[in-house]
Amino acid sequence: MNEALVEAIVTLKTEFMKRNEGGSHIQEIMPTLPESLSIDEHELEMLHKFAESNSIYSDSYEMNILDTVCKVYQGDVSNYWLDSIKHDTSYTPFYPIWILSAYALVLESKNLGVKQIIDIGSGDGRIAYCAKVAGLESYGIEIDENLVSLENKISSNTGVDFHPMIADATQFDYASLELSQPIFFISGLPEVGEMLANNVIPRITSMQNLKTNPVFVFTGSHIMRKDSSDKSKWGWGKVMERYNLEVIKTVTLPTYWTVDQPVDTPFIFTRTMI
């Protein structure tokens, strides 16, 4: 079911970009009717509430795409992007994925049987928010105070407590969350996010009392830069080898930075090999 949802999201995005004439800094779409993508009605309503409560979106309008009525949300993340790069240990600037993409990643996580989602470098909290909406325990860890303030406003306006926390993920005590079957989303594209991954993975894998090996999700790239130091496994091969991680699933979905590109962003689900 989730594979069909992923395919439908990518198809809608491709058609949307063929017709889109908007000049906004950021823009994304969501269907207005749940049966369009076989999404739970309440959960779809809450996805729209996230966008409506999020100040990065300044306006919206409806568009019919492939016989699917969608709402197009437009806005600007420039100020939050600038804020996000001012911290010494902020290795990854704020670049959001689509809300629909975050939701699809959460459903994929549920399929793996995890109980908690921890979004490291959570930005405006969309992955942690979608996780809570979908019935999982979730936490958003973000170093930038302005983004955490935005997360708290969204949480307050929607009534969805996805536990936004202002913290340096490289120093955070993950054992304090009392996790049992967690999945960790590590923000940042290859190379940019590698330093974050190298700092947080050892802290997580050293935790006691986990019922299962933790799952790590990396944001990869299908197209490697010529000067890339690691062209293997979507740019994360060296990290995966260092921590003995095996790929268990790859899901490709639209993000802010691939909205005008023919190939979207791969999200690589990995787990420590026994």
From TrEMBL:
SUPFAM superfamilies: S-adenosyl-L-methionine-dependent methyltransferases. InterPro entries: SAM-dependent_MTases_sf (IPR029063). This is Class I SAM-dependent methyltransferase. It comes from Marine Group I thaumarchaeote.
